[in-house]
Amino acid sequence: MTSFDMLRFAEVAFLLYFFGLHGTHIMLNLLSFLSLSRYMPQRVLDNLPQVYAGFEPPISVLVPAHNEEQTIVSSVRSLLQLNYSDFEILVINDGSADRTLDLLIREFSLIRLPKDLPVNLQTRPVRGLYRSQNHHNLRVIDKQNGGKADALNAGINCASYALFCAVDADSILERDSLQRVVHPFVLDPLTVATGGTVRIANGCEVRGGFLVKRGLPRNPLALFQIVEYLRAFLFGRMGWSPLNAMLIISGAFGLFRREAVIAVGGYSTKTVGEDMELIVRLHRQLRLAGKPYRITFVPDPICWTQAPENLKTLRNQRVRWQRGLSESLKTHIRLLFHRKGGVVGWVAYPYMVLFEWLEPLIVLAGYTLFMTGYFTGSISFPVMLAFLVAAVGLGIMVSTSALLLEELSFHIYPKPKHVIILLFVALVENLGYRQLTSVWRFMGLAKWIFRRKAIWGEMNRTDFTQTGQAHIPRRTREAVSNTG
Amino acid sequence: MGFGTHSEVIGTIALQVGLAACALTLVLTVVIFWVRMSLTITERREKKFQEDWRPIMVQSTETAPEQLPPLARSEWISFLSLWNYFQESLLGGSKQNLNRLARECAMDVAAKKLLETGNIRERLLAILALGHLREKSAWRALRHVVTSSDPVLSLAAARAIVQIDAHAAMPLLVPQICTREEWSPSKVAGILREAGVEVISRPLAAAAMYAAPRTLPRLIRYLNMVPSAIADPVIGQIIQASTDEQVIAACLEAMKDPVHLATIRSFAGHPDWHVRMAAAGALGRLGTDRDGRILVDMLDDNEWWVSRHAAQSLARMPFVTAKKLRRIGDGLKSEPAKRMLNLVIEENESS
Known about the structure:
The complex is a heterodimer of chains A (484) and B (351).
Chain A: H1 3-39, H2 43-46, E1 59-65, H3 72-80, E2 87-94, H4 100-107, E3 110-113, E4 126-132, E5 138-143, H5 148-158, E6 163-167, E7 172-173, H6 177-181, H7 183-187, E8 191-200, E9 205-207, E10 210-213, H8 220-237, E11 253-257, H9 258-263, H10 274-288, E12 294-305, H11 311-331, H12 342-357, H13 359-376, H14 381-408, H15 416-449, E13 458-462, E14 471-475
Parallel strand pairs in A: 1-2, 1-6, 2-5, 8-12
Antiparallel strand pairs in A: 3-4, 4-5, 6-11, 7-12, 8-11, 9-10, 13-14
Chain B: H1 3-60, H2 76-89, H3 93-104, H4 107-117, H5 120-132, H6 139-146, H7 151-164, H8 166-179, H9 185-195, H10 197-210, H11 216-223, H12 228-241, H13 245-254, H14 261-266, H15 273-286, H16 289-298, H17 304-316, H18 322-331, H19 335-350
């Protein structure tokens, strides 16, 4: 094969790849549209006053906390105000070096209990177990530092109820979030996990731990991420959910059947993407064992999180996400095209491998080839331009279709100017930002291949459990949730 | 084909796809603006409607308003949304007054029309309204919806026919409860509660006697709402005949009559820990002094949850005082059992 032939082959391959990538996104978009058109009318009932029949399954809310002294008290206070008939809150202090535990003891009048916990999942040693004297449904586990996955496993060991909800300490939940996310468990006893839509809180107003006013941030990076999250959740998750092939539930907010998670060994402490890894493992083990199950998605915006607003933090986050994705997919690669793999093994997994895992590699190779071809004279300017028009045009179309889904469903940004801004962002993010994230994700892939340690980095987060004004530097510990 | 020609073909395809994508983006943008515009108009109209009608509805819960503004066809949905909200929020006589208001506005007729021709949202609102209105003339149509495949519509219709005539609804409703696994247990429980204990008790008990093992745990939970005198004999028969662990555990959780104590004790050593855990709970609820000793033995169970339930049950027993509980703890030889009992004692003392 001559170099010309190779170039011809590569041109066709890259173009087909781009068509495949965006074509799949359009298909997912259509699936999401169908799902939403079935789901939205039912919300009429959700808007009526709710009466608890006493048949709602009780939920243990697990809140891993590591050095959260700035936000932990207000976070717990807002969690205590959630609207749900029966729930407990279990804060797991994961070896904090600051005053996280002291503040919890003082603010919630904690008293120490004998630390006799069941050991369904092995964790780092538990140092103490506390219970609030003021709030009967609040307990705190104090343990040696072992990371978020280890903390969640300790929480699972201690949880009193059959369902547990994993929540980031700095997530902002809607008051009815538990009520909404538990729905699939109530409707279908085969449900083992549900995830909800996570939205970006930057630019919104928060009071008393709850979001009171929705708005858009001024920071362009945060704006780009809003469109990214819309793509990821409104059709990335929503599209796969009816096929029972969703491979990610965000670590910021997810509800799980405790026994199912224990049966597969709990959260893995060996990956930076413990949230995705758990879901892939649940799929793998349940599929291969031939057990019927459901992993579903609730499209309502029920959890709000803060997005990085500077390049360094965003880069570290994306590098880490790609690394977590790589670890999860590599660990369970046997599910790929497994005869018992079903839609997960034969459709969702290949999609993830081809269009999420390898995407940065292929996309960057494509851009490099066309640019190199142009500068060496093997590709003419019109052809290169045509390629760019196709790649960028399809990207803009997919982002715009996510915005349309948002407008047809939740339209959470109230003002018409928000729509105009988001449309503009959907256009602009394809002219550099998405390519930049591809570079970062490529770095993540490379670091995973060369086994470089993950960097968590410092992140300026707003203590938005108060009023959304103060900027407090703290270490970010978002879970890996691919939003690409 | 030469290199240049090949590239040109690729370029042409890419350009055409790219331009098509851009054109589609433009179309999508127009649709987005159109959706937002209609949403804004709808919201404005809705706000205006609420400003006009909310005070009328508030007044109508007490006395009939003297004059009602005309209600256009386009306002039916707004009316039903607001009216259903009031109905779900209020109790007693106010609901009757609201019904009078709806009938004066001919919303009973409108709801029946929407049930026939509306989209899912409109049909849902219509079903809710017809139920609140106790609209007997809609019985046949609602009955048809109860057996439809849509879980949300069918469940709403089930509630509506119960509101219209609970006795007449039971022969249709109970078989559906047995077979419709997609129906939310919480909503079903709400419907049964609305129907009333005297109406549901016998049909539910009869259904439980002949239900398949798969549906039994769910039905047994509903039997919790039925008086013990009716439910317990049925539960006793089911537990004797069943080998399914889930069914046995559900029966143990539902038992309210000490007459079953011998049966409950026989499950304290069952191989399945869920059953043992349910037995510990039942012994705590119904047990005698003798059962306290069984619970003390269960404190040493290999399964943490059984041990915990045994400790909690012991602590709940009316004749076991805190002092006695401490004494039991001191007398325990097994360290894990002692730790578990101490944990529960301290939890109880702290709460």
